[in-house]
Amino acid sequence: MMKALVSVLLVLVAVSSTFGKYTPRTGKRIPKTLSRGWGDQLIWAQTYEEGLYWSRSRNKPLMVIFHLEDCPHSQALKKVFSEDNEIQKTLDEDFVVLNLVYETTDKHLSPDGQYVPRIIFVDPTMTVRADITGRYANRMYAYEPSDIKYLISNMQKAKKLLKSEL
Amino acid sequence: MMKALVSVLLVLVAVSSTFGKYTPRTGKRIPKTLSRGWGDQLIWAQTYEEGLYWSRSRNKPLMVIFHLEDCPHSQALKKVFSEDNEIQKTLDEDFVVLNLVYETTDKHLSPDGQYVPRIIFVDPTMTVRADITGRYANRMYAYEPSDIKYLISNMQKAKKLLKSEL
Fold first, then answer.
1. What is the reported pTM?
2. Distance, in angstroms, between A134 CA and closest chain B CA?
3. Count of Cβ atoms closer than 10 Å to residue A54 Cβ
């Protein structure tokens, strides 16, 4: 008898907690992650301000990725980027990472214009490393999927901090 | 024989894909969501720029929540806020939402200083609604868990857009 009562109670609790939670009319959604597919195991900053703060306090360079979720060039780079172990490991251990789908108001982050995909490095001194460029003269901070080794060598450049070069 | 071969191949694929993926030394992490616990079913903007853009283009007011993950006042408000069906439904249907753990450079978002938790409404005309305040004279944009009904009435105020009042 007692057992049956407990069962009924449990069912009631389960039903009420399901009914109690807000569900959109279009059905339950899967919450978006800060990684947006660029590396689920990395700890992503949410905003540029947050990225700068972490970069300064941890003395690690910041990588900012500008992309768009429905841009095929961004998607192609993201696939190679997120599956490359060397990139993911190096970013996790030596970098602060941020990916943005909207431009910031800071013009230093678009040295030669606003386009995607675009990867900008920022030194812990809060200096944008406009000197670390990709392989294309017309879009100096763009990378193709085939440029992944070039990107890795640029990450090594960014790891040589400006302060230690003085 | 064929079946056994297929099985071996499947195992090999499974093993290699596990070995192939980057895992931090401290173990696998659960990716952070943009909601940070303030409502997993809501579609959160990532940055203030993104929130302003959505607000303007959808003609819906923007709610900005400033909080800290290890602040007990933020946590207490978050619990009540995320479990309140009326708030979640209204936000989902009539608002653009953004939660931030770092301050922005825009001083309009801290009319009486930077503290958490703090809730600021922004009109689709990109005007900060400094007139929509909570119940505390010393921290005008703070809310306690017991102020949830007051917050709901403030959301109704924010829904009366500035343009339509002219």
1. 0.85
2. 25
3. 19
Given an 8 Å threshold on Cβ–Cβ distance, is A89 in contact with B41?
A: no
| Pairing of β A62-66 and β A118-122 | antiparallel
| Residue B82 near residue B47 (C-beta atoms within 8 A) | no
Residue A33 to residue B35, Cβ atoms within 8 A: no
CB atoms near residue A34 (< 10 Å):
20
Nearest by CB to A102, from B44, B49, B101: name it.
B49
Q: Per DSSP, what are the bridge partners of residue B10?
A: none
Å between B41 CA and nearest CA of chain A:
6
The answer to whether the Cβ–Cβ distance between A22 and B39 falls below 8 Å is yes
Condensed to tens digits (0 to 9), the pLDDT of residues A111-164 reads: 999 999 999 999 999 999 999 999 999 999 999 999 999 999 999 999 999 987
DSSP letter string, B47-89:
SHHHHHHHHHHHT--EEEEE--TT-HHHHHHHHHHHH-HHHHH
Q: Are A22 and B88 in contact (CB under 8 A)?
A: yes
